[in-house]
Amino acid sequence: MAHVLTNTKKKRNTIREELHGYLHQIFFIVIFMIVFTVCFFVLSMFHMQQETDRIYLVNDFYTELQAEQELLYQYTLKQDVLMEERLDDGMEKLQEALKGLLVLEVSTTFRRDVLDLIGVQENYCGKVEEIRGLIASGSKIQQINEAYYTARNMHDIMYDTFQNLYQQVLEKSRETAKRSWMYFFCFVGMLVLTLFLLIRYLLFQIQNTEEKIASPIQHLAKDVQKIDLLHLDAGDDLAELSDVGANEEVTLLIEKYNAMLDKIKRQLEEREEYHRTELKLREQEVLQLQTSNELKKSQLMNLQMQINPHFLFNTLTMISHTAYLAKDRETVELLDITSELLRYVLDYSDKAVTLGKEMEELGNYIYLLEKRFGRRISFLFDLDESFHDVLIPNMILQPLLENAIVHGVGMYTEGGRILIRTFYDEEQGIGNICIVDNGEGVSKQEAKRIEQEMKSNQIATGKIGLCNVAFRLNIFFQGNARMYFRSMPGEETEVRIEIPCERRTERVSDCDC
Amino acid sequence: MKSVTLLRVFIGICFFILCLIFLGNLFVPSSTQPFERRYTFVCPLQWAYTAAGIQDADRDFSVNTKLVGMEELNAGKQAQAIHDAVLAKVDGIITAGMEDSEVLQEAIDHAQEQGIPVVLVDNDMPDTKRTCYIGTDNYEAGVMAGEAMYKATEGNARIGILVSSLSAPNQQERLAGFEKAIRAYPDMQVAGVLECHSEKLEVKEKLPQFLEETKIDALYITEAIATSVVGDVMKERQIEPDRMRVIAFDNTNEAISYMEEGLYQALIVQAPYLQGYLAVQTLNDILDGNGIDEIIHTECRYMDRQSSKNQEWSDGGAKWHMY
């Protein structure tokens, strides 16, 4: 922002002001030049007019001289007294013409000649008076003629001098004309040169202004071009525009642009900061999730370890061997199945199995249970095998079945019944697994509590029960599986699991064991 | 920025010049010089130095002298010019005298009668009523010429003399002075005298014959017009400068160029410039009523090739009225 402060100190003209300045300059120069030139030409014309007037004056003198000569001749010839007045008049005119010539400033020689002429004219006057006297006194014609010829001689001298004067005046006017032409050419030449220089100067000024406008705009454009506004990044070096020599409008543009750039920069930085914080937060979340997963895994392990399978397995094998030695074939068979069951538990712990596999193992378990309970409990199957290839955590159904026996039909001496049913809900794309028994069931409060426990998604410590199953399903299906508990005391109790899955084949069989 | 400043300076200069031109056109210089008195100088056109002296004097005393020039010496024309000047009521007349010319004498007397002072230069007419004579002391000039001849010929020469007219007093005096000077040297003798009446054609016609007849090896010319033409004759007849020593009067332009070529040994130079200047000054003195001498002698000068280089005056571009 420092440059803005310095800018305000400097006096800057707007484009309009500058253009006005040039227009004024041009206007005054043109007016001045025109006035100057007109004055010059008027002066030159005045000089030439003066020359012409001189020539006319000299010519006037000649006219008077001729007239006077003619009058004198007529007067001498006719000896008419009436003509005397005209003669006097002509003489006066001649004198006046000479006086007019004396005022002219042509040259020293001219003045000298005019003065000589005046001298001759005075003598001429005297001679004319003499002739008049002679005529008045009635002298002899010879005398009069002699006097006339003397006057005539004087007239000739005057005529010669007039020719000299005329030549001098002409020469003078020629000189003046030459001089005027010379001055004219010098003047016009200088005028053109001055105008040329002035125009050059103005062009310089205009160029200067243009630079003040165009150059900063060009800079602006170039700088703007450099900045990729679409892919602006906080790290980009957004160089601020310089405004050297710009005039007011462009300066304003640059200042505003710079301010805008500044703002964008800050906003970018803010956004970046926000982004970073968000990223950090998510990382933390992920870390938290991982920790929780780890924890759950260890808990699962712990649960499975409670079974202590190896011990059991070895024991079973030993018992089986003992039974074999005692040739108790039934015990051997039972033990084998139990072993198989155990192997399943051990091998597939921690692994997903298909629902089919789970069912198969459930079958083994039921075989054992039938051996134990005999006719007291009957097991019914209603299976829809079209979605039995869906993967589920192992040992999901066995605890449920055990529950059904322990808390349900286990007390019955006869008429106990457990139904294992799978069906596919076409509409919602959900596979259902139900285990229904006709045991006594639980009270409503109890049922609600169990339901709550399942939903709380907490591991019921030390118990392998509904909650355990629910928890495992929840983890496996990431909360998409549902488990329902429904109990009608004295009639039936149902545990239902809903698994989101795809149906692969049509329902094949409806088995009844 | 620098070029802009330069441009401004140029524009300023141009504008200044423009103003100067304007002012120059505004004020037309006056070529008229003021003068109080009008004099007329009547003489042959060749007298440029006298005219120069007169013009300088004009400037110094603020008077005006009209220069009336004639192609050659002609007493009738000269007299007529004087009469015209008298008719024009001039304040003074300067002219050169001419011996045995009654018309001229009559004209000069007429002017004096009309109250116009006449000053004669170069050639005196003592019989007229002229107010003053300004000119060379011709006798002294003749002596100087004799000495110059001795110097040029080393005292051994057969000398021919070319004069304007034996009846002219100034010519007689120059001759007398010359003869007096060479009398001291026995080996120098005058073989013959030729009159040319200040006429170039006459010189060209008579000189070759004169040379053949007299067999001279030195020539003394006492007059300006002959001086201006003898060099030509010598060149035409291919006379070697060694065989013909020439001492001449008056430093006309031709005479000086002949001297540069080695045709003339020396010139006796009168002081026409001084005569012209003095004539104007004298006229002023007369009109102012100051006392003056009737005869004023101006000095002569010996000029050879060395001294011709520092010529003292020029003809000053005199403007003549032709007559």
How is this structure best described in words?
The complex is a heterodimer of chains A (513) and B (323). With 513 residues, chain A is an alpha+beta fold. Chain A folds into three domains: 2-222, Four Helix Bundle (Hemerythrin (Met), subunit A) (Up-down Bundle), CATH 1.20.120.1730; 228-305; 350-500, Heat Shock Protein 90, CATH 3.30.565. Helix content of chain A is 70%, strand content 9%. Chain A has helices spanning 2-9, 15-78, 83-103, 108-136, 141-226, 248-305, 309-325, 329-348, 355-373, 397-408, 444-455, 466-476; strands at residues 352-354, 377-382, 391-393, 416-425, 430-437, 482-488, 492-500. Chain A starts with a helix and ends in a 13-residue tail after the last strand. With 323 residues, chain B is α/β, with parallel strands linked by helices. Chain B folds into two domains: 38-136 and 271-300 and 312-322, Rossmann fold (3-Layer(aba) Sandwich); 138-269, Rossmann fold (3-Layer(aba) Sandwich), CATH 3.40.50.2300. In chain B, 46% of the residues lie in helices and 20% in strands. Chain B has helices spanning 2-26, 48-61, 75-87, 102-113, 138-153, 169-182, 200-214, 224-236, 253-261, 272-288; strands spanning 38-44, 64-70, 92-96, 118-121, 132-136, 157-163, 188-195, 218-221, 245-249, 266-269, 295-298, 301-303, 321-322. Chain B has a seven-stranded parallel sheet, with helices on both faces. In chain B, 46% of the residues are buried. The mean pLDDT of chain B is 86. At the A-B interface, α2, α4 and α5 of A face α1 of B.
